[in-house]
Description:
By secondary structure, the protein is of the alpha+beta class. Helices cover 38% and strands 25% of the residues. The protein has 2 domains: 5-44, no CATH class; 50-184, GTP Cyclohydrolase I, domain 2, CATH 3.30.1130.
Amino acid sequence: MAIDRTAAATAIDAFLRAIGRDPEREPDLVGTGARVADAYLDELCAGYAVDTRALLAASVITGLSPNLVVVRDIPVTTMCPHHLLPATGTATIAMHARERVVGLGTFASLVEAHARRLTLQERIGEAVVADLEAALEPLWVGCRLVLVHGCMVARGERAIGSRVETVALRSASGEPLAHAHAALGVGR
């Protein structure tokens, strides 16, 4: 589907009018349609433009001996597809590498690419794990996300202080995943 920035800005202005606000007469709302469209297209949904498999392929490092790799506190901002409100927090990626890894910054870029979409928290972790498994063939790989959801805090339940934790894990070896849980900090 083609991107139409002007149509998106017009739709935001129409939304503001539909809730009783006039974006042409209220000083604080002048230009809001364009700003919101730009924010979504240039930042909040920028992950759609990233080929995550190519991102990983460009950063693969080979010839290593098996080892544990853990990258913690990767910043995450994503948009809830149900309410278009942000969820923010952190991701942790852990894997028992065999012979291949990627540059450490690539882990953050991979999370960012999957998070900067209209997506559910659970899908981010699953997509990150699937990409890493396909590109690196680790013994096991996991992604833990701990996010605060705007849709839970600002509306409905108003569950201020709540955090949602999801864990996606895959094991090629069939080995117990207790090591993965510990590396990811599950239960902390």
